[in-house]
Structures are given as structure tokens and as C-alpha cells.
Design goal:
alpha+beta, three-stranded antiparallel sheet, five-stranded antiparallel sheet, 8 strands
């Protein structure tokens, strides 16, 4: 389970860009559009595995995988790795006990992962250049939520999904 700890401070699509896409000139729905942008970005991030905004997260797993694959990329830093041991005590691992590979977005144990449950990994994302196709996917999802009737909303969401799909990580490998 992926839990946001610190919300994104900026979005890859601005309210002004979304309003231009929607051909809106009034400001009465700016707050709503801002929330729809955040929701659309989150959808695109989860669909592709690509972080589109700087934020911090906690990944919660029942146990250690080998290696542990982080669900978003790029990751700027892993700040904490912890688990609950057999005595039901949360143990924080020292950074030298695991290796972080930012290109593969994986964590590997230096020797072996300890036995434990309720694994928590806290990390920060730091997106680089965001492809225009992903920005367009966000705009289409905002349009689907803001102004489309039910039938058109389905078509817009499908189009947004089709735009985002080629950018997903691992491509099923």
C-alpha cells in the first residue's frame, strides 16, 4: 500500500492550462479544477509508475521482497526502512544495511533482509521532464470530471488511459 506523507507542492499541469483546455474564463471553479488536476495526476502516476510531482510516500508491505521495488520513479531518496520484529518492536534499519538502485527503483539487502512484518519504506520522488502525452492525459481526465456527460466522460478517460499507457514502467516485463 502506498501512503502519501507530504502532498505535492506543485502540479505538472497548472489551473491556467486546464482552464485554457476547458475554454473557461471565470475563476469560480479554480479550487475544483485544482483538486481535479491533483486527482488526475495521481491516477496517471499509479497507471505509469512515474512520479509527476515532488512528494514523499510510505510504502507498506507485509514482509520484505527481494528486492523491494518502489512503485514510483524517479526517487530522489529513501529516508527510512523499518519493520516489526518477532517481539512486535519496530526496528529502523541503518542505511548501510541496504542498497538503493535509483535506476531500477529497488532496495536490496547488503546481506539478507531480516525476518519481520509490517515493512515501511519512506521515500521522496523528484520528477524530471514530464512528457507532453502525460500532461495531455491529465487534461483529458480533468475534462472528463469537469464538463463531460457520462458517455463522453468514459471516452475521455479511455483516451487519457491510452495516452498514459505507453509511458508505464516495465511495460509488462
Amino acid at each position: 500500500m502506498l501512503i502519501p506523507l507530504t502532498a505535492a507542492t506543485s502540479e505538472p499541469v497548472t489551473v491556467a492550462e486546464a482552464k485554457a483546455h476547458l475554454r473557461l474564463t471565470h475563476a469560480s471553479d479554480d479550487g475544483l479544477i485544482g483538486r481535479q488536476i491533483a486527482a488526475a495526476r495521481e491516477y496517471v502516476e499509479l497507471t505509469t509508475g512515474r512520479a509527476l510531482a515532488t512528494a514523499t510516500y510510505r510504502l507498506v508491505q507485509s514482509q520484505f521482497d527481494n528486492p523491494v521495488e518502489l512503485p514510483l520513479w524517479p526517487v530522489s531518496a529513501v529516508s527510512s526502512v523499518s519493520y516489526v520484529d518477532a517481539s512486535n518492536v519496530r526496528i529502523v534499519l541503518a542505511a548501510p544495511s541496504y542498497l538503493f538502485d535509483p535506476d531500477r527503483r529497488t532496495l536490496s539487502a547488503v546481506s539478507a533482509w531480516p525476518y519481520g512484518t509490517s515493512v515501511n519504506i519512506e521515500f521522496a520522488t523528484a520528477p524530471a521532464l514530464i512528457p507532453e502525452g502525460l500532461k495531455s492525459a491529465i487534461l483529458l481526465r480533468v475534462q472528463a470530471e469537469y464538463e463531460a456527460n457520462a458517455e463522453d466522460a468514459v471516452k475521455l478517460r479511455d483516451a487519457a488511459h491510452a495516452l498514459a499507457w505507453p509511458f508505464r514502467l516495465n511495460l509488462g516485463v
